[in-house]
# Entry
Amino acid sequence: MSKITTSQTIGPFSHEAWQWAVDACIPGHLKTTGETVLVTGNIFDGDGAPINDAQIEAWTPDGAALEPEQLIPGFRRVPSGADGEFSLRVSKPDAAKPGEPLMYVTVFARGLVLHQFTAVFLEDDPGLADSSILNQVPEARRATLLARRTGDGQYHWDIRMQGEAETVFFDYA
# Structure
């Protein structure tokens, strides 16, 4: 009986195997009836080196209703680039619940035996102080979940897999 788990069997071929989902999420083809938010960032390993072969998957449950024509409404999957860069354009509902994440993120990358789960909040969300999720995170680490505003509808958020400024990752039960 094999002791290899399903998360260990993807091998080095995730970019080719998952290309269909990336193609379904091309920003220029986003069909939404609402406002969008662009979150750009970089993903880094524990030594601070960019990870150039990660897959970043995002779910925006509240935004899904605004994307009825999308192949998978509310879903994005993007590979990281040569310098670990990634870009996610997501729908932002008009009636977004204050204190709720803009998106839930799953990270797949080399060296990960099991993918990691995190969430992204917008730093200018007026409900952050009352967020039931953020209030479970030690105050000193909450900043790792905040996307910083860089322009109108644009934010920057980095993912750090390990180290002093490691992004908060969640276990779901």
